[in-house]
Amino acid sequence: MFCEDACLGSSCGLEKMRSINDKLNTEVVERINGSQELVMLTNFARESNEYHYKKCLQERISDVSSWRWVLEDLSKRLDEAVRALKYEENALRVVVERIKDEIQTKQASRPGAMNPLCDVVEEAIKQEYNFLKEEKKKFENLIPELEQQTANLEKTKKRIDKDIQVKDQAISVDENCVDKNYSDAVVDANWKEKKKKGLPIKKWEKRCLTLKRAGLRALSNSIVTRQQVRGARIQLSYAAQAMSARVDTVLRRRIHSNAHKLDDLKWQKEEAIRDLRSLEEEQAYSEQNLIEVMNQERVVAARIMDRAKKPSRELIMDDANRKLRTQLSQIRTFSKELTNNIDRIVSLQHAVSNAISKIDCTLNDLSHILILDEERLSSRTGEVEQKSSSTVSISSHSKMKPQSSEQLTVIQEENEDDYPFDF
Q1: pLDDT, tens digit, for every residue of 168-218?
Q2: Pick from 88, 82, 93: nearest CA to 229
C-alpha cells in the first residue's frame, strides 16, 4: 500500500507542508525583524557610544585645558615673581655695595687732631658707622635667603611647566582621537600587554590641586618676601637719612661753634700781643728809669765821698750829710723796687709769651679740626668745595653745590588682589 504522505497530491501532505512553510516563514520574518532590530540597535549603540565618547573626550579636553590655563597663568605669575625676586636680589647687592661705599666715605669722618676728646659729633659718627656695618651684615645675610627663595620658586615653576607639557601632550592625543578616522586602523595584537595603567580621576584632580596650591604658596611667599625686602630697603633708607642728617647737623653745629672759638682765640691772641707790647714798652721805660736812679745813686755816693774828704775835725753829721745818706737810702730802695718790677715784667712777659704760644697751638689745632670737619661735611654730602678769601692760617669755605645721587629703579607693582590665594 502507498503512504498518503508520499502522495504529492494528497491534501494532508499539502497541509503539513503549508504548516511547515508558514512556520518557517514566521521564523524567517521574526529573524529578519530581529536582525534588523539588532542592526538598528547596534548602529544606535555605536552612534550613541561614539557621541558619548566624543562628548567625554570634549569634557576631558575641557577639564585638562582649564587646568592647563590655570597652571599656565600661575606659571606666568611665578615667572614674574622670579624676575621680581632676582631684581630684589640685584637691588640688595647694590644696597650692600652702596653701604660699603658709605662706610668707606665715612672713613673721612674719623676723629682728627683732638682724637682723645670724644664729643657728641664723634659719638654720632661712631653710631652711624656701627649702624651701617650692622645693616651691611643684615643685607648680606638676606641675599642667600633670597637666592634660596628664588631657587624654590624656580623649582615649583619647573614642576608646573613640566605638568603643563604633559597636559599639552594629553590634549593633543585626545584631539587626535576625536578627529582621527579609525576605518583603516590597525590594532596591535599585544596592545593589552602594552596598555598603561591609568590613574583615578580623583587622584589626578588631587595632583593638579596640589600643584596649584604649591604654586600659590610659592607665589604668596615670594610676594611676602618682596614686601619684606622692600620694606627693609625703605627702612634702611629712612634710618640712614635720619642718622646722616643728625650727624651733619651736629657736625655743622660744631663747625659753627669752632669758628666762633677760632675768632675768640684770634681776639685773645691780638689782646695778648698788645699786652706784650705794652709790657715791652713798660720794661724799656722801667729800665731807663732804673738807669737814671743808678746814675742818681752814683752821684749821691760821689757827693758823700767828696764830703768825706774833709779833715777829721770837720767831719760832722750835719743836715747835708744826713740828707745825702737819706737820699742814698731812698735811691737804693727805689732801685731795688725798680729791679723787682723789671723782674716781674720779664716774668709776666714770659707768661704772656707762653699764653700766646698756647693760643697759637690751640689755633693750629682748632684750625686743623675746622678744616677736617669741613672736609668731612663735603665728603659726606658729596659737595664741591670752593675756596674764598682767607684771613689767617685757614680759609673759609663757601656753600657747597650738592650732586644728584643715583636712584634705584622702582618696580611697578601689579595688582596682587586679582588672583585668588584661597589654597
Answers
A1: 888 888 888 777 666 666 666 665 655 566 678 888 889 889 999 999 999
A2: 88
Helix axes 201-307, 319-381, angle to 10 degrees: 160
Q: What is the pTM of this model?
A: 0.62
Phi-psi region of 198 (alpha: psi -120 to 50; beta: other; left: phi over 0): beta
Q: How far apart are CA 382 and CA 102, in angstroms?
A: 11
Distance of CA 420 to the CA centre of its chain: 31
Phi, psi (deg, nearest 5) at residue 396: -80, 145
Phi, psi of 185 (to 5 degrees): -70, 140
Q: Are 194 and 102 in contact (CB under 8 A)?
A: no
Query: Under DSSP, is residue 387 helix (H, G, I), strand (E, B) or coil?
Result: strand
**Are the C-beta atoms of 148 and 222 separated by less than 8 Å?**
no
DSSP state of 60: H
CA dist., res. 264 & res. 258, Å (int): 10
Q: Is 388 helix (H, G, I), strand (E, B) or coil?
A: strand
Separation of first and last alpha carbons in the chain: 102
